[in-house]
Amino acid sequence: MADKTQVGLSYIERETASNPFNCDKSGGMGRMHSLFTRVRRRWMGVSMGGIIGFIISLQISLALALMIPAQAQTASGDPAPIHLVALGDSLTAGYGLAPQDGFTAQLQTALLAKGHRVIVHNGGVSGDTSAGGLARLDWVVNDKTQAVIVELGANDMLRGLSPQMTEKNLRQIIETLQARGLKVMLAGMLAAPNLGPAYERAFNGLYPRLAKQYGLVFYPFFLEGVAGDPRLNLGDRIHPNRDGVEVIVENITPVVEQLLVRVEQ
Predict the structure, then answer these.
(1) Cα-flanking dihedrals φ and ψ of residue 197, to 5°?
(2) Rounded distance, CA 138 to CA 173, Å?
(3) What residue ranges define each of the domains in the chain, with the CATH number in brackets?
(4) Is residue 90 among the annotated active site residues?
């Protein structure tokens, strides 16, 4: 797999004015070099912006939950909508975007347009790590949930945390969800090359390994087609803008559909 990386969740402060990405378009998925010149990391936990965004996303999910089931009741025999939770960090939360422009809202629209009866719930919190996702798993993924997209680990990598610990946390998340009978999709991430080849191999390898071991629906790189393209990112050149999220959703939707098929079986 070609080298790629994802950077800049909310707690990262870049000290460079240039684009930290250099994409080589010659490969299938591209290659990103020169992650940053200098990076200062600081632990801030879950940001207030992330919490506010999460509350807004819950309000949207509740509104959809009121609308779609009501429509299902009007047509006799129609199946109830599938409840899908996206558990992740700022990429899932929709950092810097209006609620309707974020990942879960755009994914919801794309899936409905394809005829799927589904409610996509935003379980993203900016700055979250795999440990944070594990800690809030039980209250984010409620009893109505039937499927979960797990998009975590980028913040672990950006802090240089042990890939073994990231894998342990993700493994526990997956096992907990599967024990509840839920269908799981894993969205992968790739390490920054400046962390060194040993770290890169350890981190990049954990996602396909977990997907294979647990028989998960797998999407290798969440930011495929978006990372490093200034046209598809916010002014910070880090987080996807509305158009960038649209590209992510276009790329990932067929894989999410595989997840929905598993729920319907």
Answers:
(1) -65, -35
(2) 10
(3) 13-264 (3.40.50.1110)
(4) yes
- Enter the tokens of residue 210: 């977990």
Read out DSSP for 52-84? HHHHHHHHHHHHHHHHHHHHHHHSTTPPPPEEE
> What SS3 class is residue 109?
helix
Concerning whether 239 is annotated as a catalytic residue, the answer is: yes
Q: Over the chain, what is the mean pLDDT?
A: 80
Amino acid identity for residue 70 in this structure: A
Sign of the CA dihedral 103, 5, 187, 86? negative
Contact 72, 108 (CB under 8 A): no
pLDDT tens-digit map of 101-156? 999 999 999 999 999 999 999 999 999 999 999 999 999 999 999 999 999 999 99
Q: Are 50 and 128 in contact (CB under 8 A)?
A: yes
Q: Which residue has the tokens 């974020």?
A: 102
- Catalytic, out of 90, 126, 128, 130: 90
- Selected catalytic residue, list 83, 116, 121, 239: 239
> In this structure, what are the phi and psi dihedrals at residue 225, rounded to the nearest 5 degrees?
85, 0
- Exposed (0-12), middle (13-18) or buried (19+): which is 12, by Cβ within 10 Å? buried
How deeply is 17 buried, as exposed, middle or buried, from its count of CB atoms within 10 A (0-12, 13-18, 19+)? exposed
More confident residue, 5 or 81: 81
pLDDT of residue 11: 31
| Side chain identity, residue 77 | G
Q: Roughly how many angstroms between the first and final C-alpha of the chain, as a whole number?
A: 32
Other beta carbons within 10 Å of 180: 14
Which among 33, 34, 101, 236 is annotated as catalytic?
236
